[in-house]
Design goal:
heterodimer; A: 350 residues; mainly alpha; B: 232 residues; two-stranded antiparallel sheet; 63% helix; 2% strand
Chain lengths: 350, 232
């Protein structure tokens, strides 16, 4: 068959990789701002650190691979990976956490597989999982929101916690992140899991300082801010609606069903706590490691939602976005294989 | 003599059981969390391999072709039992720490692979040499991987060497880096896969460089095969 190229004009969305990545990073801004408002300036420190590390790691590995450095680096995909790593680790985690994560994400998960477009797994989430299973203590040490801290942390104190693991006065992170009543503040997801494992009732588990209304002070606003950024991405047609909608609907359905059947945590709690929104709009929609057909995207998103609920409810780790996304990344080739759309003019309609 | 040299090159580098044939990955990945474990299992595998290769080679003319595989497996199982009992008697600590992976040497494909591919067709002396070289190649990879994982994961080398070598070996323990936090992933199974992948990458790098030096004309080659199994 002869395929002739028609003369111009051709329809093109005019979106280079660089523009897409910049768009996604811009959409992260409200989330990052809200996060640093609630959890302190440490978020921004980690962000700068992550951006520096991913740039250095990408430049180094490209040099080793004899690839042009600036064209690849400036497409922004590495920076986006850095941003996602920085916002997903606890803001006061020691500096080497973010360094190890960034280097692993870029060198092992992305470039050793062949660079952007060839990586099977989402680099930021693979790095997050590496850090979580290697350093569970540091990676679950989220401090409660600033307003609840027994002693507010100054900027210098936060810097000092990140780089030397104590404040200027020599107070360790464990003490520094105590809340007003003296208990260390776990994340809401973490707290509910612990409380339920101690045979508390669900109302006891939910009745805590760190909890206001739905999903815990701070967390719900962070999630809403990422939702806002995600809606912008949808509006700008950077991402398709299929994955986030499928994921959120499936997570809501699971948690609603679970709640009706006597579960402890409702729909709003699941949608607005942990990394749900950033996961749905920024992480699961990674164009490289996600499914590429529309039906496939629906299946992919829905299964991520299901896995998130199952792992949060029955698994050993407090949050589940990273594990679910990585597990579904593995299933993507299979999903894509079975959901190829019918080519126009070929094959019969069933 | 050149046959011996070829066998040594094949076993240690070109056709390495762990790096090229990718055989015996189960023990390779499971027990290499420390150098001591890796060395213990490497030596055990080496002994079984030599023993089974020699025996298979001796009986090769009396074993009917149709039932050779069960016979080989029984020979290997006998040697594994001997090794297991010996380790139980003399290195009990290591025996406990390796656990199920000692009996599982029976299922190590590298061993039955050599019995089938080499020992059943060659003289006992050559087969013994082949067993030694293949076993050494396998053990070397185990030890390198074990060292990598132990240094990255715990910051030590030869931790627990007294289990294998007796009390005096306690002094062998070297503390290279003192971590406040262990880098757990190196000790967990994912670290073994990553480590093995990196070692294979390094081997391929040396091979490619050698090839490039031997043949300066850079004519692009079509996808080289990852597994080269030359059964001569």
């Amino acid at each position: 068959m002869k395929l002739t190229m028609a003369s111009s004009p051709h329809n093109h969305s005019l979106k280079s990789v660089n523009k897409l990545m910049t768009c996604v990073m811009l959409a992260c801004v409200p989330g990052i701002l809200v996060q640093s408002y609630f959890f302190g300036i440490g978020v921004l420190v980690q962000l700068v650190l992550a951006l520096m590390c991913v740039s250095a790691a990408e430049a180094a590995i490209l040099k080793v691979r004899n690839r042009p450095i600036w064209p690849t680096l400036s497409d922004g995909s590495a920076w986006l990976t850095g941003v996602l790593i920085a916002v997903s680790i606890p803001p006061l985690a020691p500096w080497w956490i973010v360094v190890i994560g960034s280097v692993f994400a870029i060198i092992i998960v992305k470039q050793l597989y062949g660079g952007l477009g060839f990586n099977l797994f989402n680099p930021a989430m693979a790095a997050y999982v590496l850090l979580l299973i290697s350093f569970p203590v540091q990676m679950t040490a989220w401090q409660p929101v600033n307003a609840l801290l027994a002693t507010p942390l100054s900027f210098v104190d936060q810097l000092s916690l990140i780089f030397t693991e104590t404040t200027q006065a020599g107070v360790s992170l464990d003490v520094a992140r105590q809340v007003i009543d003296g208990a260390t503040g776990a994340t809401p997801l973490d707290h509910v899991k612990t409380a339920l494992s101690q045979n508390m009732t669900s109302s006891e588990a939910m009745d805590n300082l760190a909890f206001s209304r739905f999903a815990g002070e701070g967390w719900q606003w962070v999630n809403l801010a990422y939702l806002l950024g995600g809606l912008y991405l949808l509006k700008a047609k950077v991402i398709n609606w299929h994955i986030p909608v499928a994921m959120l609907v499936s997570l809501s359905a699971c948690s609603a069903l679970g709640f009706v059947l006597g579960g402890h945590t409702g729909v709003a709690f699941h949608l607005l706590s942990g990394a749900t929104m950033i996961g749905a709009f920024f992480i699961a929609t990674d164009p490289v490691s996600a499914s590429t057909t529309n039906l496939g995207r629906l299946i992919y998103g829905a299964l991520i939602g299901l896995l998130v609920y199952l792992i949060r409810q029955f698994g050993g780790y407090p949050d589940a976005i990273a594990f679910s996304v990585l597990l579904m990344n593995m299933a993507v080739p299979l999903i894509d294989h079975y959901t190829q759309p019918r080519t126009y003019g070929h094959g019969a309609r069933k | 003599m050149s046959e011996f040299k070829t066998l040594a090159h094949e076993g240690l580098w070109k056709n390495n059981a762990a790096l090229v044939q990718l055989l015996g990955l189960c023990p390779l990945l499971a027990v290499t969390s420390t150098v001591t474990n890796a060395l213990g299992l490497g030596i055990a595998t080496l002994l079984v391999l030599v023993g089974s290769n020699v025996t298979v080679s001796v009986v090769r003319n009396w074993v009917p072709k149709d039932i050779r595989i069960p016979v080989f497996v029984m020979i290997i199982a006998a040697f594994v039992t001997i090794i297991e009992l010996l380790m139980n008697a003399f290195t009990f600590g290591l025996y406990q720490s390796l656990g199920i992976f000692i009996p599982l040497i029976v299922t190590n494909c590298a061993i039955i692979g050599r019995a089938e591919a080499y020992a059943s067709k060659n003289s006992p002396l050559l087969s013994a040499w082949d067993g030694i070289m293949m076993g050494l190649g396998f053990a070397a990879v185990l030890v390198i991987l074990g060292a990598m994982r132990e240094v990255i994961g715990q910051g030590t080398l030869f931790d627990g060497a007294e289990l294998l070598l007796g009390e005096w070996a306690t002094a062998l323990r070297i503390s290279i880096i003192d971590f406040d936090n262990q880098f757990l992933v190196a000790i967990l199974p994912p670290g073994a896969f990553l480590g093995l992948g990196l070692i294979i990458a390094v081997k391929n790098y040396f091979d490619e460089r050698k090839k490039a030096q031997a043949q300066p004309d850079p004519s692009p080659e079509k996808a080289p095969r990852a597994r080269v199994t030359s059964l001569t």
